User: What shape does this take?
Amino acid sequence: MSDGAPLPSLRFRDDEPADEPAVSLDAFLDQPEAVSVRIEGGDDVRRLAPVLDRLRLVEVDFPRFRDGRGYSSARILREMGYHGELKAVGDVLVDQLLFMRRCGFDSFAPDGPIDTATALRALNHFDFVYQQATDARVPVWKLRHG
Amino acid sequence: MYRYDQYDQAIVDARVEEFRDQVARRIAGEMTDDQFKPLRLKNGLYLQLHAYMLRVAIPYGTVNSRQLRVLAHIARTYDRGYGHFTTRQNIQFNWIKLEDTPDILAELAKVEMHAIQTSGESIRNISADQFAGAAADEVCDPRPWAELIRQFTTFHPEFSYLPRKFKIGLTASDNDRAAIKLHDVGLQVLRGSDGEFGFRVYVGGGMGRTPFVAHLIRDYLPAASICSYLEAILRVWNRNGRRDNIHKQRIKILVHDLGAEEFTRQVEEEFAAIQPLGDDIPLAEYERIAAYFVPPPFEQDLSDALDLSDPRFAAWVERNVHAHKQPGYAITTISLKPIGGIPGDVSADQIDLLADLAEQYSFDELRPTHAQNVVLPHVRKADLYAIWQQLEAAGLATANLDLISEMIVCPGLDYCSLANARSIPVAQKIAERFADPARQLDVGELKLKISGCINACGHHHVGHIGILGVDRKGTENFQLLLGGSGAEDATLAKIVGPGFTEDGVVDAVERAVEKYREIRQPGERFLDTYRRVGVEPFKEAIYV
Amino acid sequence: MKLLTGNNLTEGYVIWWTGDGWSRHVEEAIDVDDKAEQLAQTEAAACRVNNPYVVEAEPGPNGPVPLHIKERIRATGPTVRPDLLLQPADKSAGSYVI
Assistant: This one.
């Protein structure tokens, strides 16, 4: 976690955050100078495929914490080769951070404050994972078979 | 059966500690019920009418004696002396305290058990044919695939906040004993023309308010791609499933709204994108798991002879015992539907007996079924009589498998906060009406299923006779349905007409049965006669 | 009359608002009138109740009787297990049946 990261947001990147405000997906595709986009629940992130190179920040909104569409959006972006900042915003709860990290999110700006100590506990509960995902964690089946 | 390695154990242990932490935060008021609810549901903990209810996973319906004894211990120590086997092969306890749950999960973890994803909007327990490894009509034992899929779908980071629950069922036989076509995803294991394993894939089945029979979307999927194909299905649904009306969010609704063809197209497109990424669990892992499911050391050259001179024993063998692929062995279904009892319920003492029987007589395996019974899969015929005697002494020898008194019944309004009507008393009255064993045998196979509300946990949509309890202006009322089937010939039952009182529906069932007896042709079950003549003759008889 | 009910947070059993606390016995419940929402919020925030809600009831010989069968079952226990009722009809009723 980068030093001095202000609560309630959490960031797991070393680079400087993009400081342009995120625009909507339609606006982003229309504005060749934009570098930050905000993805709503129903947006199709594959529309960003041709413009990944200029993308520095993707904010994915979680309108309600039960709405899991953003996890797929994040993973698809990483699968497409996006390496920029991927930020989860909205109704994000501490118990979701691990899943979100595994789907490729590397920063968080939740509506409600997240206690750092609880966040770290939540992120470190599990030493092992069953699936290969977008993060670097090695799935158990790989550990078993090398 | 599968045994945990260090990784499986570490994951389950970590889950216990995570939940312990979450419970502590809830009790300290750091989380609202709204925030805590999805977390406790992901650990199988419901808040029901009278107390918390804990649903313990029995993956693909396989459990051993050591585990059963812990379940009995939990029933005694933390609950009120009994448990209930469910329609997804799990077991649930009705009187649990939130503050005890972390300790209960810790005790379960010690015997390789958990309550992970048994409720909530998760990928639920993977169900499988209860005769796996014992029936002659299967291509292979489907359970190694079920275990592989279980691991793949446990804490899947992309699919832990789905629009609704998601149920996967497996069979490896053309005779579908696992009702796979009533699952969100149903998988039939096949052998391809190259001799390799593959799956026939069905999507979009389910009961509930809007029942559907699943659509076949892939005739043959090479088994090596099952994980990425499941990801494709889940991702299409996770992205496009409705999120605005909880009653319209299952994948079956999306399949229906898009049409099977368009849905399939989207899945195949997503699969083409995902499959090259290397997420699939390799066949080496399948083989590692499959090594736990090799046939047990059957004795060879055993006799198939059976002394049936005791008529009560003979009646039980006739109904509850099935042929095993190994000569001299048999598959034994233990009915948990005694006349006047509570379907699927077992006392702690009975669970201990089941543990002893499994350990002594069935290579230490017991198989809960989706019909709320349990199976001893590998019993020597020579041992059947001794087993039956012990079952008799414990009230577990009811010889009624697939007869009218052997019903699937949800807990209903006696236990469930979702229910509109009580289902268990209706079941008891019907069973008592037909208590005479000779009468039941004369009626023959009749799968009766009762749900206490429209959520259909009693599977009334696929009963030969189905009963649905509703709330009519504050009083319980019961609708009668006919002609459903949950097997490979899956069909949805149809309502026959206006509803009945509790006593009225018992009479209505009897009139329907008597009509069947009146017009049946030789060899016809109730369902066959209904399919031949249609609903009208029954309707006339019922609403006389 | 309106009763406020819910479940005890840590143990899960059914509880009814009595005016100065929570009881397991619906006979002790009072009419919460229009105070329900405020009460529910305060008590839930203090973790003294889980999932509180209002229930219609009528006065009975021993105290309030919920109008809806579901709430009557919550108040007394599962009708098919007389031994497990809040006031067991017959303590040994269940032990031989299953």
Remarks:
- The beta strands of chain C are 2-7, 14-17, 22-23, 50-60, 63-66.
